[in-house]
TrEMBL record:
It comes from Hondaea fermentalgiana. GO terms for biological process: RNA polymerase II preinitiation complex assembly. Residues 127-310 form the TAF6 C-terminal HEAT repeat domain. Its main location: nucleus. Belongs to the TAF6 family. GO terms for cellular component: SAGA complex; SLIK (SAGA-like) complex; transcription factor TFIID complex. This is Transcription initiation factor TFIID subunit 6. GO terms for molecular function: RNA polymerase II general transcription initiation factor activity; transcription coactivator activity; translation initiation factor activity. The lineage of its organism: Eukaryota, Sar, Stramenopiles, Bigyra, Labyrinthulomycetes. It comes from the Eukaryota.
Amino acid sequence: MERSLFAKKNAATLVRRLTIDDVENALRVRKIPVVHGFGVSKPDRFKFLQYQNLYFLEQEDVDLGRILEDSEQLFLPKKVPLRPSFGIHWLAINGVQPTIAENPHLLEGQGTAKEKVKSDPQNGIAKHVLTKELQIYYEKVVLAVVEAALGNSAAAESVYASLAVDPGLQQLMPYLAKFIFDQVNKSLSNLALLKSVMRLTRCILINPNLDKELYLHEMMPPIMTCIVHRRLCTSPFQDHWSLRDAAATLIPIVYGQYGDTYQNIKPRVQNTLRDALMRKDRPLTTQYGAIVGIAAMGPLTVQAVLLPVMAKLLRRYSKAMLRSRSILERREAQHCVGALQSAFGSYLRACASPELSKAILLEEHAEMARAVALAAGEATIPWQPHDAASSSHLFLFV
């Protein structure tokens, strides 16, 4: 009787324990190769739930109070749980990922098909593969720029409108910036294509959903090239003046967005335009671009850069218009005179503005402005303010 009770007790105990022999026997029954090299000194204990006919692994309860008391011995912080904290580190600088502990190493082949990441072993620049949708969109942008250059501007309007407002184009920014840079450098004699590229550049710059900060070094040189380059078309009688005007309007957009972040943008552009204007070996086309570029930067820049030399330039260009034997030179000088008159007129209009008159300090520059008005002649009359409330200094210019 005692032996039978002992046998039943042992059988019940064996049922509750799963051993390695049980796994090996099950594998042999299924004709599966036996797994070797695994074993434990103490078999796991299982509990049996009769009402569900289920076995589950018996686990030891952990006393959190004891863990908190023994935190120093367990090398845990004294205050458990920890409060959430935040840290800041550079994920990438100018497209290059710094090798710090917080940044994971980008290995080739990681990620999904849409977010595949590769690393360049030479310069460490992280590259990404565009999705199929963005590839199609980029091809449409390139086609639209070419179509607009060929005269089919109606087909490109929808693409330009999308570029100006679409928020999902950030991954295309490196490709668009490189496209602008390459096309301007390769197509300096294709006036229609340059105009189309500048239209593309404007749409990108005015899009509030795109971050252009990391690509300014690729976008600013093409803009400046389209302003002050010597020749932007095959024939000098083509209308390259409108291209220079359109490119000049992009300068205030750039430093209006990033002038506070990069305070050297405006001085560098201003110095470049001043150098293009003041050097006598520069052609009149380059000087015209410098004039419209300076005028686009605002009345204070006109006052600082153009106003001291405007009278001298007006006399020089007027002399070229009257005495030059070249029809082309007379025409270019005429455009330069018109650009100077327009810049001076916008300056006069700013002087009459209550918001800008105090910043312009008209009294200190009245003598130079009077000399410019004398050199410009009657051309400045339409720009003169006729409001009696305006400053009396303005009426002394003519």
